[in-house]
Amino acid sequence: MTTQTWPFELEIRHAGFRGTIDPARVTVPAGIVATYQVGFADVDPGFVDPITLAVLNLPAGAVATFDVNPCQVTDTVTLTIETLGLAVGLYGLEIEATY
Asked: What percent of the chain has a predicted confidence (pLDDT) above 70?
């Protein structure tokens, strides 16, 4: 009788999701509010943790506001960015989700 063994792996990870934003780019004149919809996709089964959102790389003078924060993966969140006082240009921003 011969016995064989072979390796395999099991990885346990935090439940999660993929964040979405629509539109990915907004063009507005200085002083006008830019509006985005933030959502969640590819949500792992059983994920129920509250999510706190923040905007990273926000230029000085801009104000970002989420209409629901903290939120749940079942929420669609409106993000508004007040642009009063910003210089003309393209700003690369990121959304940070903490849970």
From this structure: 97
